[in-house]
Amino acid sequence: MEKPRKKFIDVVDKAMVAASTMDRDELLFSYKGILYPVTVCSPEVFKAMESLEARSDDVILAGYPKSGTNWVGQILSDLVATFEKKTQGEESVNAEDLEEFPYLEVGDAGKFERMNKLPSRRVIFTHLLPDNLPRSIFKSKAKILLLIRNPKDVATSFYHFSNGMSLLPSYETWDDFFIAFMTEKMPWGSYFNYLSEWNKYAADENVMTITYEELKENRALGVKNIAAFFGISLTEEELQGVVERSSFQSMKENSVKTHGALGSILFRKGGVSDWKSLFNEDQNEKMDKAFEEHIAGTKLGMKLKYDVYCKA
Ligand code: A3P
Question: 191: closest CA among 149, 137, 146?
C-alpha cells in the first residue's frame, strides 16, 4: 500500500486541528455506555451505520485500539490490492475517489450509503464491540480477522498515544493513565470487556484470531495464514512483497504518505514487552488479577499466552 491516502490524512488533520482548541473534558462523548472521540465519531454516524449492507466477501478487521490495527490493516489492504491488481488491472478498489476512512465508525453519516456502492472486495477496520456492529456483518457471514495483543503492551501503547494525539485526553502520569485504563475510562471502552465480548465469537468459523505477538514472531507465516483465511490467492513472490511492505521499518518510513502527521505518533516502538518500562509491582498484580477474573481460561485468554508475554 504505497499510495498516499489523501482522504485518510485529511480526516485526521482536520480532527487534530479541531481537538487542539478543545478542553480535555470535551474530547470524548458517550454512546450506549462507551466513550468515543468527538472529533472523529458521532451519534449520527453510529445510527447511520445500521444501513451498511455487509457482503460475504467483505474483509473485516476487528481490533481494540493499539493492538496493531494499522499494521494488520495495511497487510489486508495490500493483500486485496495486490490480488485486484493482478486480476483486474491497476485501477480498482484502492482508487482515490473510492477511498473511505478505513475505520467503520469514523467519518460522516453519508459514508455507509457510499460504501454500499463500492465494488468488492471492501476492506473494513473497526474498534467496535461486536454488539455495536451493523447486524448485516454477522448475517452476511463476512469473514472477520480478530486481532488481539497482550493487555500490558496495549495499555503502554495507549498511554503514549493518548499523550501524543490531541484527539484523546492526555495524562500527567502513567499512574493516572493506569487507573483510567483499569476503570473503563478509555475511548472504545475497556479492553477486558472487549476481549470477553469478542470471545463469544472467537469459535465461529468465519472468525480468525491472530495475536500481535505471533505476527511479530513470524510475519511471513501470519500473512500466509491471513491470505488463506480470506481466500486471497497470491504467489509466494506476491506474498513476500506484502510481508516486506508491512515491516515496522518500512511502514514507519512510508508513514508521512500513508498517515500524515499521525504517522510519527503511531509508529512508536512496534515491539513486545515495552510494558516492563512502565508497570510497577502493584500495577502488575492488579492487571494479572483482572486478566484472571475476566479472560483467563477462555479461548482468547489462552491465545494471548499471558504467562509468556505479561509475566515479569
Ligand atoms: P507501540 O505503541 O507499542 O509501538 P494501532 O494501529 O492499533 O493503533 O496500534 C499501534 C501499535 O502498533 C503501535 O505500538 C505501533 O508501533 C504498532 N505497529 C504499527 N505498525 C507496526 C508494524 N509494522 N510492526 C509492528 N508493530 C507495528
Answer: 149
Span 231-268, pLDDT tens digits: 999 999 999 999 999 999 999 999 999 999 999 999 99
Residue 17 counted as domain residue: yes
Ligand 1 atom nearest 246 alpha carbon: 23
What is the pLDDT, as a whole number, of residue 93? Answer: 47
The average confidence (pLDDT) of the chain is: 95
Is residue 165 in some structural domain? Answer: yes
Place of cell 464491540: 129
H/E/C letters for each residue in 182-221? HCCCCECCCHHHHHHHHHCCCCCCCEEEEEHHHHHHCHHH
Which burial class, exposed, middle or buried, applies to 158 when counting CB atoms under 10 A from its CB (0-12, 13-18, 19+)? buried
Answer yes or no: is pLDDT of 88 > 90: no
Name which of 173, 148, 149 is nearest 160 in CA terms. 173
Q: How many angstroms is it from 53 CA to the middle of ligand 1?
A: 30
Asked, for residue 55, whether it belongs to a domain, the answer is: yes
Active site residues: 127
CATH number at residue 141: 3.40.50.300
In this structure, the residues whose C-beta lies within 6 A of any atom of ligand 1 are 63, 65-71, 153, 157, 160, 246-248, 251, 266-270, 274
Atom number in ligand 1 closest to CA 64 = 7
How confident is the model over 145-181, as pLDDT tens digits?
A: 999 999 999 999 999 999 999 999 999 999 999 999 9
Full domain range(s) for residue 58: 6-309
The closest residue, in CA terms, to atom 22 on ligand 1 is: 248
Average confidence (pLDDT) over 289-307: 97
Residue 153 in domain: yes
The pick from 8, 12, 66 for probing ligand 1's pocket by mutation, whose C-beta has the most ligand atoms within 8 angstroms, reads 66
How many domains are contained in the chain?
1
Q: How far is the CA of 265 from the centre of ligand 1 (A)?
A: 10
Pocket test for ligand 1, best of 266, 276, 278, 309 (most atoms within 8 A of CB): 266
6-48 pLDDT, tens digit per residue, is 889 999 999 999 999 999 999 999 999 999 999 999 999 999 9
